[in-house]
Amino acid sequence: MPDLSVESGALTLERRRHLWHSQPMPKRILLPTKECLHCGRFFGRRKKASDAQWSAARFCGHPCARRHFLGDPENRFWSDVDKAPGLGPKGDCWLWRGRLEPSGYARVQYLGKPEYVHRAAYKIAVWPIPDGLMVCHTCDVRHCVRPEHWFLGTQKDNIQDAVRKGRHAHGERGNAKLTEADVRSIRESHEPTRILSARYCVAKQTIRAIRRGDSWMHVAANTEMLTPRCSS
Predict the structure, then answer these.
(1) Residue 152 in contact with residue 130, Cβ under 8 Å?
(2) What is the DSSP string of 166-184?
(3) Which residues 6+ apart lie within 8 Å of 83 measured at CB?
(4) pTM for the complete prediction?
(5) Does residue 142 contact residue 153 with C-beta atoms inside 8 Å?
């Protein structure tokens, strides 16, 4: 019979397991936490934070710190809007009081990105803007942010609205490469887009826009819209 005593070393593995499990478990180290002054959630100390930084920490992150000191972004946005009566063509517009661009539009930082104020106001007050649509004004004031003065539409809808209100350029401009006769010929032609583009020395996008009716719409009113048989 082999000697299985402790002195023989045959039970070394079992002895090691016994000694391992008999050792007291190390105490669980609890990381220090604090309660955010803005949202009330608990946050822990960052690894590289010094003692001075941790003692001064009062917020779980930069967004809560900004909202605590500057207020809610939506409230800050509407605080820059002038809602006094008598503004706009009908006296009921809400106008942006910030800086305006030469075009009459205004931009603001929304969710970390520059955005037109009327688009940012729509996202705040109504809903995210669907892809392919744009926010159009019924009051024709470009920095108006009143929800009742908006409607969603495509670029074509916006141009048609401008034509109905007489805000779209009509006639042949001095710097235009095409004439009204050229536009009618393009719409009546069934030639490929690349051939018409080379013939009139304009981009293919210009030919497609004329055929769709997105440009030179005042000519389309007197001409039947024809769909080209082939394009490139």
Answers:
(1) yes
(2) T-S--S--TT-S--HHHHH
(3) 94
(4) 0.48
(5) no
- Backbone φ and ψ for 185, nearest 5 degrees, come out as -65, -40
User: Higher confidence at residue 95 or residue 76?
Assistant: 95
What element of type H or E holds 155? helix 155-164
pLDDT digits over 81-117, tens only?
999 888 888 889 999 988 888 778 889 888 778 899 9
Q: For residue 144, what is the DSSP state?
A: B
- Does domain 75-164 bear CATH number 3.90.75? yes
Domain extents for the chain? 75-164, 173-232
pLDDT value for 145 = 93
Residue 28 identity: R
What's the rounded Cα separation, in Å, for the pair 135 and 151?
6
Q: Is 209 left (phi over 0), alpha (psi -120 to 50) or beta?
A: alpha
Q: CA-based diameter of the chain, in Å?
A: 116
Phi-psi region of 132 (alpha: psi -120 to 50; beta: other; left: phi over 0): left
Tens digits of residue pLDDT in 159-169: 888 778 766 55
